[in-house]
């Protein structure tokens, strides 16, 4: 019976930690910003983990999407606007507008996306 108690304690502790995460709404920490790109009539990007107050845009050759501010939750949704049908190699750029061009960094680099 002693062996059973030792194996149940770590499992119970892990379940308690998981329940606490679910109750508080805390998710996994994001070390660096991430972007998910999707093609269609336009190119869209969903960026998470960026610094609130920064701004981001979708950029590529002949694609210069509008800059959008990052929300307090570190999330921003971007849209390139209508583009010609075909293959596009795009990046997502973010910057701190108040500090200027020196803060520009790439969140998603040279990602192939197709529009229709």
Give a quick summary of the entry:
It is built from 1 helix and 8 strands; from the N terminus they run αββββββββ. It is globular and about 35 Å long. It starts with a helix and ends with a strand.
Q: Mean of the pLDDT scores?
A: 83
Largest sheet: 5 strands, antiparallel
Order of helices and strands: HEEEEEEEE
Number of helices, counting only DSSP H or I runs of 4 residues or more: 1
Task: Report the β-strand fraction as a percent range.
Answer: 35-45%
Radius of gyration: 20 Å
The percent range for helix content is 10-25%
> Low-confidence segments, ≥5 residues, pLDDT <50?
14-27
Could you say which structural class the secondary elements and strand pairing correspond to? alpha+beta
Written description of the protein model:
The protein has 116 residues and is of the alpha+beta class. Helix content is 20%, strand content 39%. The longest helix is centred in the first third of the chain and has 23 residues, at 2-24. The chain is globular. The N and C termini lie far apart (64 Å).
Write the SSE topology.
Blueprint: H1 2-24, E1 34-38, E2 44-48, E3 55-60, E4 63-64, E5 68-69, E6 76-79, E7 86-95, E8 105-115
Antiparallel strand pairs: 1-2, 2-6, 3-4, 3-5, 3-7, 7-8
Key traits:
single chain; 116 residues; alpha+beta; five-stranded antiparallel beta sheet; three-stranded antiparallel beta sheet; 8 strands; 20% helix
């Amino acid at each position: 019976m002693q062996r059973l108690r030792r194996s149940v304690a770590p499992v119970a502790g892990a379940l308690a930690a998981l329940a606490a995460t679910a109750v508080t709404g805390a998710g996994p920490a994001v070390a660096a910003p991430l972007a998910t790109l999707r093609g269609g009539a336009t190119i869209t990007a969903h960026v998470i983990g960026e610094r609130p107050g920064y701004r981001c845009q979708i950029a590529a050759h002949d694609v210069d999407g509008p800059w959008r501010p990052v929300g307090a939750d570190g999330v921003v949704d971007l849209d390139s606007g209508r583009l010609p049908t075909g293959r596009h190699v795009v990046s997502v750029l973010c910057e701190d507008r108040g500090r200027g061009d020196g803060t520009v960094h790439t969140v998603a680099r040279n990602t192939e996306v197709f529009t229709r």
